[in-house]
Design brief:
- The chain has 301 residues and is an all-alpha fold.
- The protein has a single domain, classed as Ferritin.
- It has nine helices and two strands.
- Helix 1 packs antiparallel against helix 4, helix 3 runs antiparallel to helix 6 and helix 6 packs antiparallel against helix 7.
- It is globular and about 65 Å long.
- The protein starts with 19 loop residues before the first helix and ends with a helix.
- It binds manganese (II) ion (2 copies).
- One manganese (II) ion binds next to helix 3, helix 4 and helix 7.
- The site of one manganese (II) ion has 5 residues, from helix 7.
């Protein structure tokens, strides 16, 4: 089971230059083959389907902990997309002036036609995410090899999106994901090392560019050591992940640490109403009605 918090993992600044085409590029990190929906669903299915987990508990705990973290990553990417799309059409209720006409040339029209200027489960070219991106063979060595490759592929895409999109909102989110995804690369490398004795960590970083080249990522590593801390994302369970996540980081030699639970995160950024898209809907919803319902339910407003 997953315990959910109404918080976002990373604080995202308001975009300086919101842009639907920047948002379209960032979609690759959500619904692309190597996007966060893929990492989430790969590790989730691998954990559901893990046979013989009692004998191999640390590997199961690792897969479960990282799967849970990936949920917070699809949230972070989605919010960056939402913020990059905010304010991209003309706010108002009159359809006659064509309040959406400025985005007719946006690369991804689903942002405006099938969602209310918000994230969609598609890649940067509008291809829907598919379960065919999920690899859960049930063979531990093969799945860990795949996960190591998947995280390296994800890292390559993050680096390219960073190079394509210069807005600080997107770059803060990508910097965060580079740090946490970098940790996942090392985690799967270490898992393969424990399982086979092969020194997979010698391969990192893949691609061959340190996170230090990305100022937003470097800051999180220098100040918060977020490349060293593996969270279980559970108050009590998955603690045997410490049998894999121990020793030192292969790039800077600093000690690795397991933290039980998740991290606090920050409140979600407010998403303003977009009346030209009828989102969230009628503005004559009676606020007193909600106040009455809340009162009956004992909710303080
Ligand atoms: Mn991720
Ligand atoms: Mn990951």
């Amino acid at each position: 089971m997953i315990l959910r918090y109404d918080r976002l993992a990373v604080e995202l600044p308001k975009p300086k230059n919101p842009s639907p085409n920047d948002a379209a590029a960032v979609q690759e990190l959500l619904g692309g083959k190597y996007g966060e929906m893929s990492t989430l669903m790969n590790y989730t299915f691998q954990s559901f389907n893990f046979r013989g987990r009692n004998r191999l508990r640390p590997f199961y705990d690792l897969t479960c902990s990282i799967a849970a973290e990936e949920y917070s990553h699809i949230e972070a990417v989605s919010y960056a997309i939402n913020l990059l799309l905010t304010g991209q059409t003309v706010r108002g209720k009159d359809p006659v002036p064509g309040p959406l006409k400025d985005v007719a040339d946006a690369r991804n029209s689903y942002h405006f036609l099938s969602s209310a200027q918000a994230a969609v489960p598609f890649d940067s070219m509008g291809n829907p995410w598919t379960g065919q991106y999920v690899h859960a063979s049930g063979n531990l060595k093969l799945d860990l090899l795949h996960n190591f490759f998947l995280e390296c592929g994800a890292r390559a895409n993050k680096m390219r999106v960073y190079e394509m999109v210069t807005d600080p909102c997107a770059r803060t989110m990508v910097g965060y994901l580079l740090v946490r995804g970098g940790l996942h690369v090392v985690a799967y490398a270490k898992a393969l090392e424990k399982l086979t004795g092969v020194e997979v960590s010698k391969l990192v970083p893949v691609p061959e560019l340190s996170n230090d080249a990305f100022p937003e990522a470097k800051k999180l590593q220098d100040q918060q050591k977020l490349h060293l801390k593996l969270y279980t994302f559970s108050p009590d369970d998955y603690g045997q992940v410490g049998k894999i996540w121990n020793g030192t980081h292969p790039e800077d030699g600093q000690p690795l640490e397991v933290l039980q639970g998740g991290f606090m995160g920050v409140p979600y950024p407010e998403l303003e109403e977009e009346p030209q898209l009828n989102s969230p809907g009628a503005d004559d919803y009676d606020p007193q009605m909600f106040a009455d319902i809340a009162k009956k339910m004992g909710v303080k407003m």
